[in-house]
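During the second half of the funding period, the structural biology subgroup turned its attention to how the target accommodates small molecules. The most pressing case was zinc ion, which had performed well in the primary screen but for which no bound structure existed. We therefore specified the complex as follows and requested a full 3D prediction, including the ligand pose.
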Amino acid sequence: MKSHLLSIFIIFLLGITYSVMTLSAQEITSGKADLSAINVLLIDGQGTHNWRETTPVLERTLEETGLFDVTVTTTPAEWESVADFAPNFMDYDVILLNYCGALWSETTRAAFLQYVADGGGLVLYHSANNAFSEWKEFQNLLAVTAWGGRDADFGPYRYWDTQMRSAVQLATDGPTGSAQNHVEYVIQSIMPTHPIMRGMPEKMLHGPDELYAHLRGPVENAPEISLLAAAHSNPETGGSGRWEAVLATTNYRKGRVFQILYGHSGSQCRSVAFLVPFLRGTQWAATGIVTIPIPEDIPSEDKSYIRP
Ligand code: ZN
């Protein structure tokens, strides 16, 4: 009887070992661990920005690494026609949002949230942080947000205090979203141990570009936010005088969300201080790890560099 029980126990252990091995094999072939084929769904079609110019630049920047396979889906241009927009999010490792337009249907919104909650990656590029102010649950994806008729109900002002070396949350009324004139500015790393930031210079010069300010977040009971980098919004050029968020992440249930808040137009998306965190952040959102190396043309704090 004892030897019979021992046999059952050994079979049980072998079963567990086999299950773990099988799971590992499935993960390796699922695409999420296969770094040569990260499937990106880039959504555009409506917005306050020139997405017709920036989408091909983002697509080229991703595909020239050889690591990403980008599918672009463009919503109808007419506001009311977006009701039929229903991509199959589950076919992709990461969704890249270059969209700030009409609200999707309830079915598409539910599928999108389910995709992220189940572990799908999401990248919110520049003006995507202005999107969907009327969609309550969307706010939980955002580290920081602005415009779209938002007010203090969308969270406190959130920015970086360089002296205190901590994120500041200031609950007060005032504008939600502003942008300084297009100037060069330094991207200051504030979380160098995060996989996206690891190995990147502490300071990189970027621009000339727009820099968002008076950003708010998080809403009450929102998931945890990590501010990865900030830039000084200079009051002499129309800025807030604060160090504003430029790179951030959130975790929405099992999903990873990466937010890159600069890169107003096509040439600014070819700035190395934009494209390196953009590529690494997209890989992180899709897979949870970052293998894209820091290139030799990474800028210093004194000189920006824009690739052709
Ligand atoms: Zn802009």
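Two results from this model are relevant to the next phase. Residues 2-29 form the longest helix (28 residues). The pocket of zinc ion is lined by residues 49, 126-127, 210, 264 (CB under 6 Å).
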